[in-house]
Amino acid sequence: MSTFRAVRIDKADKGVTAAFVDFDEAELMDGDVDVAITHTTVNYKDGLNVTGKAPIARRFPMIPGIDFAGVVERSTAPAFKPGDGVLLTGYGVGEGHLGGFAQKARVKSDWLVPLPQDLSPAEAMAIGTAGFTAMLSVLALERFGMNPDMGPVVVTGAAGGVGSIAIALLHKAGWRVIASTGRPQEADYLKALGADEIIDRAELSSPGKPLAKPRWAAGVDTVGSHTLANVLAAIQPHGAVAACGNAQGLDLPGSVAPFILRGVALLGVDSVQCPMPLRLSAWRRLADDLDRGKLASLTTHAPFERVLDVARDIVEGKVRGRVVIDVA
Fold first, then answer.
1. Cβ neighbours of residue 321 under 8 Å, at least 6 residues apart?
2. Which one of 37, 85, 192, 296 is at 20 to 30 Å from 178 when CA atoms are compared?
3. Are residues 143 and 258 in the same domain?
4. Within a domain: 179
5. Boundary of a domain, candidates 227, 251, 268
6. What confidence tens digit (pLDDT) does each residue in 56-87 have?
7. Is the Cβ–Cβ distance between 48 and 56 less than 8 Å?
8. For residues 280, 283, 284 and 289, what is the CA-based torsion angle, rounded to 10 degrees?
């Protein structure tokens, strides 16, 4: 068996250690498809995993990285053959199954999405779990019946990966977008993506009232905790919020008032175990609807050797938009 370059995290006395190693193919986990990884990306969850700030990894050693794109090297699955372009997000990869911060992965074919014909591997990773989650949030609002004629939509954590792509998608769909961020210096960046108004996250991040003056028809929340509670409190009657993140916390310190007095809906978004039909539909919409110029404007590129630095930076709030890691 040969080796390949990978990031390996191991359990330590205090948290975890993370370092580049030559990983032996014999240590790869079960799967019917081997993928030569060309690109990966860094999500907030990856940053927590690498730094040990949250118990993301469920086994050790672990290769982190919840996303990757690449080319099939070996397959015993009828759906894929050597040379096929593929991408993967979720399914516990990088948490319970060896992940994408590596030159090679072995995974189950049921987890793989064929690379859309008009997306490059780098563009797929510029989207990654963050953009996929943003698209699922937009689809959740659409399935509930929300549309731009009903009023504005608020996006929290707007300068992050999910928030940035959500703004671009919602703007393309015709929404008036209100961006909530703790980084006022990113106002021009957010407006270029399609935000019509910028508000300070401090307006939403502290304990609030059970009900507030209606401000928005809908919301995409990446933050959770008091922020989500305050967004719900300010949604107009019969509006909806897609909840897809917990950057502020896992708690929801609100009340039932928005639900029982205004008929507001809270729509949960799960990008990890999302059913494959919805997964394929979301990627098709991303390939069709996401403005490539805006995607490029919110994306930076870094070599594989810098992936640990980027993972630490994202936890510290130093990363804007998306970072594509060029593994190959």
1. 159, 160, 161, 164, 189, 297, 298, 299, 300
2. 296
3. yes
4. yes
5. 268
6. 889 999 999 999 999 999 999 999 999 999 99
7. yes
8. 150
